[in-house]
Specification:
Blueprint: E1 16-21, E2 27-33, E3 36-39, E4 55-57, E5 60-62, H1 64-74, E6 78-83, E7 88-90, H2 103-116, E8 125-129, E9 132-140, H3 148-159, E10 167-175
Parallel strand pairs: 2-10, 3-10, 9-10
Antiparallel strand pairs: 1-2, 3-4, 4-5, 6-7, 6-8, 8-9
Length: 176
């Protein structure tokens, strides 16, 4: 039985676990889901954040991180794309936006950043619903791999009390 107490969105319900060796040598088994997303075929998007795939979520163009956020939102979650590269929390990209986190969510992230010694490595999507929270890492199948900064961030999140079921790997592919 995999993580039955967390109410993940139906489309992102974990079906496996990803074994991650942490910097301490300990191993974390992170819930994992492997959905397929469709490429956007509408009006060509020219601003792609350095070449990110533009996908179709609910007939709107989105990067994977924002499409994943849309899936959570449709099931009553609130959240953001944690754009660590540009140091922003986003709920959309076209037009670009930047939002503030609620104070308690910001405090948790700051504690994790402090414990890891860096702001780098945070999982891509941070969502919350009532007392539940999820940090989801978006990885394109056969392309992306977990980085050392993410291993440090992950270990720090666990040390700061984030439960394993509040972490989710989303290893996505492209469907026709």
């Amino acid at each position: 039985m995999l993580y039955s107490s967390m109410e993940y969105p139906k489309f992102l319900k974990p079906t496996a676990t990803e074994r991650v060796e942490l910097p301490s040598g300990k191993v974390a088994k992170i819930p994992k889901t492997t959905p397929n997303f469709k490429l956007w075929t509408g009006v060509k998007i020219t601003e792609t954040y350095g070449g990110k795939a533009v996908l179709d979520f609910y007939n709107e163009p989105q990067f994977a991180e924002l499409g994943i956020l849309r899936i959570f939102e449709r099931e009553g979650w609130t959240g953001v794309w944690v754009d660590t590269y540009r140091g922003k929390f986003r709920t959309r990209y076209w037009p670009e936006d930047s939002v503030a986190l609620p104070k308690d969510k910001e405090a948790l992230l700051n504690a994790i950043y402090k414990a890891s010694g860096s702001r780098a490595g945070c999982f891509d999507v941070f969502c919350w619903k009532e007392t539940d929270l999820i940090f989801a890492e978006s990885k394109r199948r056969d392309g992306d791999k977990i980085r050392d900064t993410q291993r440090r961030w992950l270990e720090s999140a666990l040390k700061c009390g984030v439960p394993m079921e509040s972490l989710l790997f989303i290893e996505w592919g492209i469907s026709n």
